[in-house]
From TrEMBL, chains A, B:
Keywords carried by this UniProt record: Hydrolase
One example GO MF annotation: nucleic acid binding
Keyword Phosphoprotein among UniProt keywords: no
InterPro entries reported for this sequence: DDH_dom, DHH_sf, DHHA1_dom, Oligoribo/pAp-PDE_c-di-AMP_PDE
Gene3D superfamilies in alphabetical order: 3.10.310.30, inorganic pyrophosphatase (n-terminal core)
Name this protein carries in UniProt: Bifunctional oligoribonuclease/PAP phosphatase NrnA
Span of domain DHHA1: 223-317
UniProt entry tagged with the keyword Hydrolase: yes
Organism listed in the record: Citroniella saccharovorans
Amino acid sequence: MTNLNDFSNKLKEEILKAKSIAIISHYLPDGDAIGSTLTMYGAVRKLNNAVTALRSDTIPTFLKFLPLIDDLILYDEKSKFDLAIILDCGDEDRLGSKKSIIKNSKTSFLIDHHNNNPLFANYNYVDNKASSTCELVFDIVKLMGVSFCKDMAFSCLTGILTDTNRFMYENSSSSTLLKAAELIDTGLDKDYLIRNLYQKTSKQSFLINKILVENTEFFFDGKFAFSYISNEDLNKVGATRDDLDDKISLIRDIEGVEIAILVEDRFDELKVGLRSKEYVNVSELARRFGGGGHNKASGFYYKSSIIDLKKDLMKEIEIILNENK
Amino acid sequence: MTNLNDFSNKLKEEILKAKSIAIISHYLPDGDAIGSTLTMYGAVRKLNNAVTALRSDTIPTFLKFLPLIDDLILYDEKSKFDLAIILDCGDEDRLGSKKSIIKNSKTSFLIDHHNNNPLFANYNYVDNKASSTCELVFDIVKLMGVSFCKDMAFSCLTGILTDTNRFMYENSSSSTLLKAAELIDTGLDKDYLIRNLYQKTSKQSFLINKILVENTEFFFDGKFAFSYISNEDLNKVGATRDDLDDKISLIRDIEGVEIAILVEDRFDELKVGLRSKEYVNVSELARRFGGGGHNKASGFYYKSSIIDLKKDLMKEIEIILNENK
């Protein structure tokens, strides 16, 4: 569906008649995934109590302060639902092993803002110009005639703040600011939210900054910055993977850098995060390696060694930078 | 004057009749000082061409991208003006050696948002609840009936963004977001602004992160974080003082830290920056050392050694933290 009003009406109709409703977002969830899940959960509860908020993965520590976070239960693949509301999933695989939720539900609705979404649900509302899924959920909740309580507003604002990096990214517009203002005006504790999101960096995350400086290399006149944090590096300062959250921004934000890549160890593969600043579409680059995401923030997993990865990346990036000269 | 409407009317009246107008802000200017100067300059020019935008100091590199920045001329103490508009100065001394502008002007207006402002101009509008002087200038410009062009909006948004650390600080409210949205809707190039403010970290500033980690010490169960970057440290990575801009946030934002202090060498004295997170008023602490500022962001200069400073600070901070237990 391309009309937000029709989509919202249809969703409300299905919510009102469903005997069981599930809300779920992607694995390795971020602030927008969890934020949109909890916002929608709060809204649906006001229409129909037969709703379960699901998680497809563990909740990152930095999001555990969100209201109603303990209501999220791990999806059991045997569960069947009348209605599934799927949030922030760029494709079916982003549900990980939990994609059975689609065939386990009579009707499915998808709300998302990623590029090239294959529209895998029965009803899909995808707007890749939206800053965040939370911004879309904000509109849909209002169109369904549900008012925002403080808790819903708190989760919704969390998704907007984290997916825009506090209104920094291009998809963040004046209307994003207006929505944030409206959410704050519900009376939510903005300062508590800000302290939890931005002023609770772990000491280990701070210590990682030193290793990040030591490991970052610059190529192609400083247009490409490449960094790798190994499990050994993490162990050196007692850090976990959560402590690497958004470290990639520190290298993208260096003057002259157009493409920033930060690689992390993940069991038997490498997690490769990509960011660009102005003119390179890194989601295209990620797709060449089987990944995806947004134009300026994307990622993929890589099965071979860091040396092979670097070699592969250097080739592709040389071509991209030459194309954009 | 405590009524913003009366103040704006009076200011407009004086602008319209003045034969010469000066606009000036504080020394060691930041984004709000320069942003408010350029915004007011743009507005006054629409009412009266006999206006000069002054600077009391050099312009930091990171602000040189602002429109009309080259119009700012260094104040010559022999100059006399009918009207001086003084922006973002918590007290007269913040004009540095340029405070003669007050006696060199027939009438002076002050617009500011710092605590304990002694109201040193003929007409003063000070609101310490405002996020920034730019937010006050936004209101005053509108009350004077002057519309925002893109350039004015660009400078005004710069002041709001820098003084709120992108809507992070407590003084940033939903009305701050509404003003920012209105400024963006003038059609200014938000992404260019964001890239210049947040994505042009110098490589040296990035390298300083390593030294910051090495030099940061934690006291009182991690509630107090203390760091010192010497001139030698700067030289090690070829950095300048500009590269230390906002590094103090990196230590304030560590979990558990309530008071963060970052000390820098400044010729024959030490520049001491103070930040707090939740319950400590660091402007009181700064005042004990002859400085000032905001409740959660303040500073002072110290004439003795770093060892003496640390000793003095430890004593005061132990008392403050005990009081707030």
